[in-house]
Amino acid sequence: MIETIETTEVTGLRIDAKFSPQGRSWVDVRDASVDIDSSKLFEGVWFFDHLESVRTGPNGSESSQPIFEGWSLLSAIASITSNVRLGLMVSCLQYRPLGVLAKIVSTIDNITGGRVDLGLGAGNNANEAKAFGIQFPSLSNRIAILAESCEALKLMFSTDQSVSYSGNFVKIENAKNNPAPINREIPFFIGGKGEVRMFKVIAEHADFWNYSNGTPEEFSQKYSKLVSRSKELSIDRILPRASVQVQVNPSDLDGPTNLATSYIKAGASHILLYAVPSFESVEGIKIVAERLRQ
């Protein structure tokens, strides 16, 4: 039997909503987020982190659509919600200087009273970065930046006093992150499928490993390899919990219910029901969430 969530201290299944912040109005996004916040069925609300509209996702399109910037959007959602945790799945480290990202995350965490989760990724859209004048290093360097960023962010979150960090790519010097996060730490959700370099970063730093765009069979194989990778590295920390995104179309609720159930049976303990921010979609993901909690 699947254990349901009674408090924010998750011991069993966690179910969150994720909305696409493109092709919809602020009113749509606002109303969907407030609805989820008041429903008590979900522990978190997430958005993605892109600067241009994307082709994938529940309302992906080949043509350009309006899209909201992720952290600005979260700041607004933070002020109108009271219960759900908030995050971007995942925040691209190339888009903001590391120290500035730490300040943004800490500010929103204080606004929410400690309700921020930090999704992190190495980035995967070179064309988008180029369009906005952002440097986009090689994959190996982006993974190295991710690893160093995790170390530096944990330092900056742990205190409101000055800290310094000097890596090959990430450097901060006497940076004072004041106010620090409410609890002096932020949970890390790291996305990626690379079984050598990415899994090393995930095993060393993630509280949750996020999986998307695949099948329960691939997920199960990848999660087993993440466990093995952690053992190979002799990492002395709790293994990251598995997080999976499942798209929901309000016209077909059986499909995502069955898919999410398969992921749970394969080892997932965090399900993001990924939908368009609209009344129909919110009602749909509520039904799926209720089914999963049974």
Describe the structure in your own words.
By secondary structure, the protein is α/β, with parallel strands linked by helices. It is built from nine helices and eleven strands. It has a nine-stranded parallel beta sheet. A two-stranded antiparallel sheet has the order 6-7.
Write the SSE topology.
Blueprint: E1 14-19, H1 26-39, E2 44-47, H2 70-78, E3 85-88, E4 91-92, H3 98-112, E5 118-121, H4 126-131, H5 139-157, E6 162-166, E7 171-176, E8 188-191, H6 197-205, E9 208-211, H7 216-232, E10 241-247, H8 254-265, E11 270-275, H9 279-293
Parallel strand pairs: 1-2, 1-11, 2-3, 4-5, 5-8, 8-9, 9-10, 10-11
Antiparallel strand pairs: 6-7
Helix pairs in contact: 2-3, 3-5, 5-6, 6-7, 8-9
